[in-house]
Amino acid sequence: MEKEMTLEKGFISRLEKPLLQLLKLSNHAWIDYDKGADVAYVSFERPQHATDSELLDNGVIVRKRGKKIVGFTILNAGKLIYG
Question: Has this prediction a pTM greater than 0.90?
């Protein structure tokens, strides 16, 4: 349990700056993390109703509705954070 809490604190501290930048895109953001799949989901609207998506070279999928970004899916999220 203590190890898990330490990992969570490390995960959060490394995400703090990028999350603040993400929040500049929207007044609200929801973040879900699937530990088993190591995938993080960031949504600026719920439901997203994305009509398009784009996979970037860094393993991030940008979800869009028209020209508006409505969320991200971050593949291998733990590896991106922990190295």
Answer: no
